[in-house]
Amino acid sequence: MHEKNKMIVLFEDLTGSFSNLIFIRSKLVGLLLFACTLFNLNIAAQGIISLVVAIVFARFIGIKKDDPINKLYSYNALLTGFAIGFLFKVTYLSVILTFGMSIMTVLLTYTLSSILYNLFKLPVLNIPFTISATIIYLSSSKYSNLVVDSFYKQDQYNLEFIPGYIQGLLRAAGILVFMPYDAIGIVVLLAILFYSRITFFVTVLSYYTGILFLALLKGSIPLAFAEISSFNFILVGIALGGMFLIPSKRTYLLTFTGVLVSVFIIDATSVFWVSFGIPVFTLPFNLTVLLYIYVLGSVKYPMMNYTSLDQPERSLVNFLNYQNRFDWITPSINLPFMGKWTVYQGFNGEWTHKGVWKYAYDFVIEDDEGKTYKSRGSEKEDFYCFGKPVISPIDGTIVEIYDELEDNEPEQVDKDNNWGNYVIISSPIGYHIEISHLKKDSIKVKRGDSVTKGTPLAECGNSGYSPQPHLHIQLQHSQYIGYAGYEFKFNSFKLADSGAIDPDLLVKGNSVISLTTSKTVSRKFQFILDEEFSYDIYENDEKASELSFIVKMDSDGTYYFSDTDDNKLYFGKDKDRFVFFKYSGNKKSYLRYFMLGLPSLSLTDEEKFSWEEYLPDNLLESKLPKIFKSLYHSADTTIGRYFKTGNNVIEGKVLKNKVLLFDTELTLCDVKGIKDIIITTTDKKIWMTKV
Predict the structure, then answer these.
(1) Contact between residue 595 and residue 589 where contact means Cβ atoms under 8 Å apart
(2) What gap in Å lies between CA 63 and CA 80, rounded to an integer?
(3) How far is the C-alpha of 624 from the C-alpha of 664, rounded, in Å?
(4) Whole-prediction pTM
(5) Is the pLDDT of residue 87 over 90?
(6) Does the domain at residues 332-487 carry the CATH identifier 2.70.70.10?
(7) How far apart are CA 102 and CA 74, in angstroms?
(8) How confident is the model at residue 139 (pLDDT cuts 50, 70, 90)?
(9) Which sequence spans correspond to the domains of the chain?
(10) Separation CA 64–CA 70 (nearest Å)
């Protein structure tokens, strides 16, 4: 059994190293690329020798098996071995050369990757190979005992009936494994197509984009197709078009500009390299991609791909899921009051919320007739919000207070003290909250006090520039009163009229009800590691299957449910609500129905409210290829509309492109977890019940 495991690890290392040659993570692609090299045994043998030497040397000097550097030096060493096998026959002298250069590649990879990552947070790509291959070509001219492989041109693998404009692409693809032949190029392109349609798309388009630029600059199409370094266009396309950036129209445009930049680098470096009789290798690719990654990362390009997912399609689905469902950039706070209040003035308000103070909210309390006061409203005490409790919207520290100004009578304002009485709270993550126009002598906290959400702060008043009692709140970078504000959102509330939970609907005239987090509801979703759950599954009232899953923790500390097929449903808490963050696995697993039935839930005792959720594409079968989704992110969108109709019941409707797919009904357990999930389509009813 132990030997079998060793063979599996060896196979995975081998296929992983080969697939990494073109920055792809796929065992099948790696196996196909390995098979391609077998058509030239010199290349295959020297590549394997170099890879084995690199692995042994890395272990010998103490690089551990689980060190991320392993993936980097392995494919760089493989390329170095290919370069030697491309030039020389396998002899004891060429093996010695491979042995030495493989060791140098490991040393270069470790050194350069450490420097690039620590200084610039950049990947090393295959710079070590480029340096090693250059050294090989320069030094080998001194070694007369090495036998040049005069038989490496294997023209029998070329298909002369293929038009030249297609042969150029095939040979550029083939040279990625040092086999510039039509048949090999076909295999490489088919492997890429199998792995990812998006990667295949950028591969083909990047190549022909580069050829077009070359043809325009050189004034000759045949010369452009004859450029031996044109494989760099393919590598630039694969790296930028789907690996380091999220696929999109904007990303593809950036990729094509990257191809243009690489054209200039190819021609510029070849002028120098040709004097030594050596090719430019992958220098244009490395320089172009590193420049783009560094600059785009520095300017915080919104579609940088920070995931470690093995396909651009999966990265796209993951990106859209988090982009459409979570906002972890805009600060989010609770409302500073309880009960029902109305937005009196919102962002870019018509009165005082202008310029640097445009990001602020004013709140009042209205009656059923829309009035903010009782009787004639001639006294400040007539206004419903005057004297009402003001509570802390965050966990933080009190940094400033002012409590000495008299409250104005209605229609009078204090022009000298715009903000009136106020409290400023500092958040642990850096921003400050200012709440103003408070009632004199009502502030219940002092500077330096620690507060939590819901801590009583003061009472609503009418101090400062305030023609009627109301509550003003804004976020700002500084703790000083009157500092410029910036955008923020509220959470844990519902609209009074519709019951909808949607921060974007908080505009002037809308009344909101604050939602309080319930410990009872929260405990229903406090799942413990290794806790097991089992469900019986019925289809059209007949038992069809069973589902069992266990609670596990990932290496990054996130929790997930995992069934027997290793499908994963990640869950946790986000802004006072329970959420299923993402699903990873088979689209036919019953585990995904938990996310379809309840992607999130506000942890409140409130019985009736509604909300809408974007549902990621990997939950359901989709007829639209992801290449089209990458061009139009809003295409083929699935939305869930959910309604909490009772204490433990959540009903939903799942729609794709606004067309109803099925209804859902989910019932929570009284103590913990989910009791039942019912999915109802036009011709099928799936019922999952806890056992």
Answers:
(1) no
(2) 20
(3) 24
(4) 0.90
(5) no
(6) yes
(7) 9
(8) confident
(9) 196-263+281-306, 332-487, 521-690
(10) 8
